[in-house]
Amino acid sequence: MMKQQVCENESRILEALGQGVAPESLQEPLRSHVANCPSCVEIVSVYRLFQIDSQYLCAEASVPDAGRVWWRARLAAHRAAASQALRPIMIAERFAVAIGSGALIALLVVALPWLAGQMVHRKLFSDTILYSFSLSSLIVSSAVVCLLLMAGALYALWTEK
Amino acid sequence: MLTRVVALARGQAARAEAEDKSLAMDEESFRTIYELTARPLWAYLARVSGDPALADDLLQECYCRFLTLTHPPQEDAHRKNYLFRMATNLLRDHWRAIQRHGETAIETADMPSQDHEVTNVPLRSDLGRALAKLKPRERQLLWLAYAEGASHREIAEASGMREASVRPLLFRARKKLMDLIGGARLTARKA
Q1: Comparing A123 with A118, which gets the higher pLDDT?
Q2: Is residue B14 situated within a structural domain?
């Protein structure tokens, strides 16, 4: 059996059919070609099948209302615009959190050896106990306040997201 | 400085909302375009994906993206091609997402569709069943060529393949479809 080849006229025939020209109304020599070429006969019958199916599906399709799609697109666009506009605030917030964390870490690094030293001094010089205790408690309470503020900032960021 | 940044950003957000420049066209223009193109696009998505619910979702996503374009195509034909290309890309993204989750491959595996067709129309039913047995890319090619009457160049643009590859692939897909339809009719006649 001879193997069927891709017909050179396929795109021309499809173009004509796409313009609504019936196979019988095609211009010569295309019309006689379609009548004799097995590949083109097949194209015409497949085309008809698809047209019927397409018309049926288009008639049966229950597409969403245009207003609904419009509203959804508008909402998405607003969200995108708002998120873009608020980006500098987000960056500033992250920057502030980073600075705060860095300051806290630096404070702890500097204060801990000093605190340890103060404890030793407190043992050696009992007369300065009151002064050492008040200073160290001030530093510790500052650190606790910083930690609480950090936690609050992180919570605020998380809730915003 | 921070207060200036905040004020600037809030001002931009308020302006964006007030001016509503975010969408490419007004509602009436969109409605006209939608009425012309939504049904053929839905039919394409439904036939290629085989899932009407997915076709609904992708159709809405497609128009949402279209509306947010900075310069949407103005000519009808160009607009239609653009929408079909977007729909094809969305389908491809959807299948890639499925593939990432360890399900069937896009190009190689058969993705039988859930055929929701009315079975009391034999001609349509034959085509629906036969298409369901083809690969998604074959369904795309066939639908664009024979249901939408797209040229090889338009099919190449929509499906992201080379124009020269369209003709042989379309030919093979058509042969496969005809074999399936012929086989189905033969079985029906025997029954």
Answers
A1: A118
A2: no
